[in-house]
Specification:
Length: 361
Amino acid sequence: MIPIAKPFIGEEEIDAVTAVLKSGTIAEGQKVKDFEAAFARYCGTSDAIAVNSGTAALHVALLAHNIGNGDEVITSPFTFVASANSVLFTGAKPVFADIDENTFNIDPECINEKITPKTKAIIPVHLYGQSANMEKIMEIAEDNNLVVIEDACQAHGATFDGKKVGSFSTGTFSFYPTKNMTTGEGGIITTDDKSIAERSRMIRSHGSKQRYFHEMLGFNLRMTDIAAALGLAQLARLDGFNNARIRNAKYLAEKLNKLKEIKNPYVDSRCGHVFHQYTVRLESNLPRDEIASLLNKKGIGTGIYYPLPIHKQPYYRSLGYDDSLPVSEKASLEVLSLPVHPAVNKEELDTISSAMQKILS
């Protein structure tokens, strides 16, 4: 089986984790501080605050910006549910704006339509490894005095106009094993705002700056030194991983371009796409799920990200969401992701393209 995703772990990572285990300091310690400093440098921000998941990063970032009861946060319905759930965790209300049909990212024009006096923040999701239109989103935020929290959980190293995602405002990243880099489980918040950094550190650690002195309500959302050591080794290789993804995506696109039944991923000319997922779009009359099943039977892993937009999820329906978001709803029926991660080789890419040609011929 050619898997849809695979963590790329080598001797560097094994040695780094082993050294931490031998040191006896395995909870949050110096390795976490080192990882935070390295990731901040990589993104071009003054601070990074490591936590134990991407969901925690979103949750903490929202709380650090004092978002809570009575507030509304505009985000995409076409993403993993954590993007919206993190808003609910704070007591605020997620409001969904439809997506751009080419990039699958939130449409800035649709954001404008959703702003009310209760709107306090926007969470753009850099889906599949491509940045949302941060120029327009930041303009909207500035014009309406809104906070922007970037959900960059799928976009480590991605850029917009040469600037790394996570550095336009407050950024959040995930290090789940399927991501472009991993710490096993983990997440991080990036910011240039010292007050947001300080509040984030307190929220992740029981509301405390000094041990046993608690100034606010907080949680235990800390990263371990084990995870941070793995992250440091992965971060050193991230650009190489991303370059392999980009090469694989380009090669697969060239192979699949002749197929009229599918649309290869659109890359905005202002974006440095890092292809967390290589997501094609099938013609609406094609049986997407059946095609995925046929590929799986041929030993090719696939992914459907995401088969049901958040506003259509049973829990959100129970909360009263009944939005009509036609672009997201149509995309959810047509997208199919194919393997392009660093472990995929040229022979396997040929196998994928050949299988697609046979199935669609």
